[in-house]
Structures are given as C-alpha cells and as structure tokens.
Amino acid sequence: MAKVAFIGLGNMGGPMAVNLVKAGHQVAAFDLSANALAQVKAEGAAVASSAADAVAGADFVISMLPAAKHVLSLYLGEQGIATHIDKKALVIDCSTIDADSARKLGAALAEQDLAFIDAPVSGGVGGAKAGTLTFIVGGSDADFERAKTVLGNMGKNLFHAGAVGAGQVAKICNNMLLSILMVGTSEALQMGIDNGLDPKVLSEIMLKSSGRNWTLELYNPCPDVLPNVPSSNGYQGGFMVDLMVKDLGLALEASLQSGSSTPLGALARSLYVAHQRAGNGKLDFSSIFTAFEKVKN
Ligand code: NAD
C-alpha cells in the first residue's frame, strides 16, 4: 500500500481521499478548511499541519482544488510545496484547470525531477463517493501505469488522453459537448410540450430515433420523465450550473488559443452564464430546461 498526500478535501476531494483510506493506503490529508479536515479524519485519514507536512515521504501527491490559481500557488507559489516532495513521488492534479496551466506546472515540476500527470475527473460528487469516477489522464505511459495504483481505488474508468495537458483538453471537449446536448434536448422537449405532447412519450420516441443522446436517456431535464435524476428533485444535487460555466469558460479559452471554431460551445456558454446570472448557479445544469419553459400566469 502506498503513502499518499491528499490536498483539497472539498465535495470531491473529501470522498476521494476516504476511498483511498478504505483501500488501505496511508493517507496524509491537508485542506485550508478545518471542517473538511475533521470529516476525513473521522474516516481514518491522518491530518497534516500544512501541505508541506502532508507531502513528506509520500509516494503519490494528489491535489483536488477549485481552479488553476490554487493549484499553481500550492506547488509553485505561496505554499510552494514542490521543493518538499520526494523525488520518487508522482504528482497527480485532479482539479479541472486550463491545459496551459497544467503544462506549465508539469514543466516546472520536471525541472525539479518530479513526475506529473493531470487527471481531471468526470462523474461528480456521486461518483467520488461511490468510487466510480472517470479519470482522464495527460502524462507519459509510465506515469499513467504508475497512477493506476491509486486512481483505480477512486474510479472505474481510467483513460490516457495523451501528453501532459491532454487530460484537461479531453475533459473540456466532453463537457462542452454535454452542455450543447443538454440545451438541445431541453429546447426540443419544451417545443413538444408547447405543441401538446407528453414529454415522456416524446422522450421514448426520440430515444428510438436519431435524436437519442445521453442527456435524454439518463439525465432527462424535464421533471418527472425519469426517477432519481436532479430534474425530478427540484434540480438539487448533480453538477452545478456554476461548475458548467467554469468548464465552458475553459473550453472558450482553449478554442481561442487553438483558433478552433466552436459556435455551439460559445452559444451554450452564453446561455449557461445568463441562467447563472438569473440566480440558478447552485442548481444542477439540467435546470437550463426551465429557461425554455413558458411563464405560467
Ligand atoms: P470544493 O470547493 O468543494 O473543494 C475545494 C477544496 O479545496 C476546499 O475544501 C478548499 O478549502 C480547498 N482548498 C482551496 N485552496 C487550497 C489550498 N491552497 N490548500 C489546501 N486546500 C485548499 O470544490 P470541488 O467541488 O471538490 O471541486 C474540486 C475540483 O474538481 C474543481 O476543479 C472542480 O472543477 C472539479 N470537479 C468538480 C465536480 C463536482 O461535481 N463538484 C465534478 C468534476 C470536477
């Protein structure tokens, strides 16, 4: 079993660290929030007094932080833990950040003889708790193989997308497509309802037709078409609009940098930003359906 330093124990990182403890790894955890630390301590993780303290002697250093500025500050900036990490260790950043920052971090760590992979996840808080996350890795073949020891205890699907940064690119491509499918599914369902159709019947028809897609089949945005999805539970739980807006901002940045044409991604971002600004940031992203509903007088 490995010695793992885990930094960032929020909604995602907390349950991920707990799954490593359950798998028998020796986990040293650190977060700026005392509350987050108390929760993983109760599940058997050792609590470190600082990030530098957590990484001492670790085989794997895993971070799960809100955004690029936190990740860069942790390793290279204010907290500057890179110099405290053992040369044998593999650094795994699971946060969703822009690919350029991931590459910059990988290069800076390589200068200090430290191995690095970016490993953003898909699967949300439910997947983090259940240990069924999908990891999308950017890094060398050897480091991807090495990472399986710990990633396999937190997730079910492990993909190797390419070199450092490729994990982040693949993740935002997926989330951009997901947002487009969610918006398209929502407007089609609402147009059917406006024309007198039952959304359950319309969903069944489209599921057997060429409009079939993941959002329609497993995450239907229209309330009461499917049980146990956020739309049938007041759009609570799931993947927040705030996080979708963050990911679509990263997708837009990437498309500007690569000169790619992403008209539907840009439109989906604008729709989600408007939805967020209308006060829906904490709701699940399928709540975009309500933007198409007729106001009931
Ligand atoms: P969160 O805000 O719940 O947790 C982040 C944690 O990091 C907090 O506990 C915070 O105190 C801690 N932190 C911040 N700066 C720190 C520092 N310098 N040192 C130590 N701890 C620090 O966020 P989350 O929902 O767990 O998301 C984490 C990452 O995962 C984000 O990049 C997000 O985009 C990505 N993600 C989230 C989801 C989701 O459904 N929540 C799904 C996929 C990916």
Task: Write structural notes for this entry.
The protein is of the alpha/beta class. The protein has two domains: 3-162, NAD(P)-binding Rossmann-like Domain (Rossmann fold, 3-Layer(aba) Sandwich); 169-292, N-(1-d-carboxylethyl)-l-norvaline Dehydrogenase, domain 2. The chain is 48% helix and 13% strand. The protein has helices at residues 13-22, 34-42, 51-55, 68-75, 99-111, 124-130, 141-151, 166-194, 199-207, 214-218, 241-258, 263-280, and strands at residues 3-7, 26-30, 46-47, 60-63, 90-93, 115-118, 121-122, 133-138, 155-162. The strands form two sheets. The chain has a six-stranded parallel β-sheet with strand order 3-2-1-4-5-6, with helices on both faces. A three-stranded mixed β-sheet has the order 7-8-9. Helix 8 crosses helix 11 (241-258). The longest helix is centred in the middle third of the chain and has 29 residues, at 166-194. The radius of gyration is 20 Å and the shape is elongated. 46% of the residues are buried. Bound molecules: nicotinamide-adenine-dinucleotide. Nicotinamide-adenine-dinucleotide (NAD) binds next to helix 4, helix 6 and helix 11. This is 3-hydroxyisobutyrate dehydrogenase. Residues 3-162 form the 6-phosphogluconate dehydrogenase NADP-binding domain. Residues 165-289 form the 3-hydroxyisobutyrate dehydrogenase-like NAD-binding domain. Its EC number is 1.1.1.31.
